[in-house]
Each structure stands twice: as C-alpha cells, then as structure tokens.
# Entry
Amino acid sequence: MESLTVTQVRECIGQETGLSDWILISQDMIDRFAELTDDHQFIHTDPQRAVQTPFGGTIAHGFLILSMLPKLMAANRVHLSGVKIGVNYGFDKLRLMAPVHAGKRIRGRFVLKDFSERGPGRWIMATRVSVEIEGQDKPAVVGDWLNMLVTA
# Structure
C-alpha cells in the first residue's frame, strides 16, 4: 500500500480507487446482526415467513450491509501520506437500492469524488461507494462516503 502526497491524491479524483473481494452475507451473519441490534423483523430472520414476501426469502438488514463498508474499503488504493487518524465523517446521498438476500455475495467499488482541506492538517475525502451484489445489475448501496483524515 503506497502513501500518496496531497497532489497525488487529487490526481486520483474521478478514478476508481478500489474494488474489494466478494464477501458472503450468510443467514448466520444476518441472525447475529439481528441479535446485536435487536432488529428481529421476520424478513431478516424467519426464512419460512420471508419466502412468502415479495423478497422470496430473507434479506440482510440495510445497516448490516453499511457496516461492511470498512472491510470493503480495505481495497481502496488511495492513502494520504502522514495520516495520524482517519474517522468516519458521514455520508452524502446515501441510498439502499436493492436487497441483499441471505447467501449472496457483495463487494465494494470505490471512486474518489473529492479531496479537500478543511483546516490545517484536516482533509475530507469523499468516495463514491457502490456495494455490488454478485449476479445482479442493481447495486445494494450507492452513496458518497466522507472520511476526515488528520495529518497534524
């Protein structure tokens, strides 16, 4: 993993900066997330009832898919040199586009949208995130993820 200067990072704006490996979203993972968040809605946790819905089976919680972003983002190739800490700064235009069925695999695709200084030693990196579902044209999630990078 190569660390880049501010100028080099800015040269990456508009480019794809990462594509992760596929990750399986299993029913066990969905069930554990339901336990952790106390969200036991049957479309997530009851395969017999969920099969009778328009989804045709259980689907992952939208927030479970979002919680996978740090793991998926490990594939991002743009890293600013000298970063002491990076923190999640939120999202712009986040949309949950398609359900992820239990047993499907997802991956993250990342495009650097913007990189701007917020103050001395503080940078905001805006990355377009698309969480793709294997075998489907429509992504599960699309949004602009903001991260603050602190170099000073």
User: Anything to note?
Assistant: The chain has a mean pLDDT of 96. Helices lie at 6-11, 27-37, 42-45, 47-50, 62-67, 69-73. The longest strand covers residues 104-119.
